[in-house]
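Changelog-adjacent note: as of this version, every example in the card shows the full chain rather than a window. The one below runs 183 residues end to end.
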Amino acid sequence: MDTSEAETRLLDAAEKLFYERGVQAVGMDQVRTASGVSLKRLYQVFPSKSELVRACLDRRDRRWRARLAAHVEACPAGRERVLAVYDWLYAWFTEPDFRGCAFINAYGELGAVDPAVADAVRAHKSAFHDYLAGLVAAAGGPERAVAPLVLLAEGAMTAAAISGSPEPARQARLGVAQLLAAS
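Full-length structure tokens:
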């Protein structure tokens, strides 16, 4: 097995386990077993659990933002694209394996003790903020609306994970529509 295949198998296994059970609850032996990659090879590819967590977050960030952008870009330009973010959140929240935002979850577990994880989470959240800011600007909305829109999305992610319901996305969308109409 070459390094690329080992890395993919390890990331697939680790990301699934970390998201389902939490980072701290999953040991490297569990990642080894789920991936079928030897422990020696695992540590050759990812010398520490922190590096594995960071790689999982980096890959999830790219995939998450690409999925969101693909959905939004399929919608008419303007305010509809801003609202489409919350429609996409609703669809994400209805997925059977939805366990909340992996970045919020990882930060809650490791943000205070692992600067690399905290940095990865901050980078993801900053990129999301910038993406929403671009959508708001393209829709002719005011820059001051961006922070509340981000908070509505972040709050919806947390509320959906805790409640087990996708409805917080619809409630956030309603708030966004009201904010955009008022501006």
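Structural remarks: The first helix runs from residue 3 to 21.
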